[in-house]
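Render this sequence as a predicted structure.
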Amino acid sequence: MADNSRWGLGDGNAPAPGASASGAQQEYWFSLRLRVDAPAQLWQAAALRCLSQTDLSREEVEDLIGPMEDPSIADCLMMLALPERLPGCTRLDTTLSPVDAPALPVRPALEPSDAVGEG
């Protein structure tokens, strides 16, 4: 059950960076379930976000989220639903999967030192 935080629009007396109001770190699990009704509209919005917030070319955007005729729905959703960062927060986990498939966590990237000796 959510607390009565007024969506963070309090009296302006925010705690210091890195500290919560109680002084302890808090973790939350946020869930969002969607039905994609118009994949082309989803792609257009994701492409616009890519083009307006990066210096990617349209060709690079299509490599990232697929072409408009066959969009990568998961990549489009991630582009739109996840901000680069949430102020005052550390993202701990990201999971995206179709409803009829088991959720698979996003695998963290290997550090360059991890790749040494592979191959």
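Summary. The radius of gyration is 19 Å. The CA atoms of residues 14 and 40 lie 41 Å apart.
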